[in-house]
Design brief:
Belongs to the YbaB/EbfC family. The chain is an alpha+beta fold. The chain contains 2 helices and 3 strands. It is rod-shaped. About 10% of the residues are buried.
Length: about 100
């Protein structure tokens, strides 16, 4: 019994290490999103950290329009990054999980 427990603990530790490695790797995965008219471009990591925002000068005269474009474009980019993040983190966690009956 204790041998199995020790083996499960080792597998859990490996799963945790794999998750941490995946978090680090996802910081280097960049997602670019551009607004429909191409006037705003955002880049963020798969960990959902914004790296850059480029705004066309024509949007600088209308704050409301700029805000609308930013919200839409950022939300699209965050959605893409979240999908990648969830998939990769689930895969990393699952790869090292012990086979526990009933789970």
């Amino acid at each position: 019994m204790f041998g199995d427990l020790s083996g499960m603990m080792d597998k859990l530790k490996k799963a945790q290490e794999e998750v941490e490695k995946t978090k680090v790797r996802l910081d280097s995965v960049l997602i670019d999103e551009t607004s429909a008219d191409g006037k705003i471009k955002v880049t963020l990591t798969a960990n959902r950290n914004i790296k850059s925002i480029a705004i066309d000068d024509s949007l600088l005269t209308d704050a409301e329009e700029l805000e609308d474009f930013l919200i839409i474009t950022l939300n699209k980019a965050i959605e893409k990054a979240s999908k990648i993040n969830v998939t990769e983190m689930a895969s990393a966690a699952k790869s090292g999980m012990p086979n526990i009956p009933g789970m």
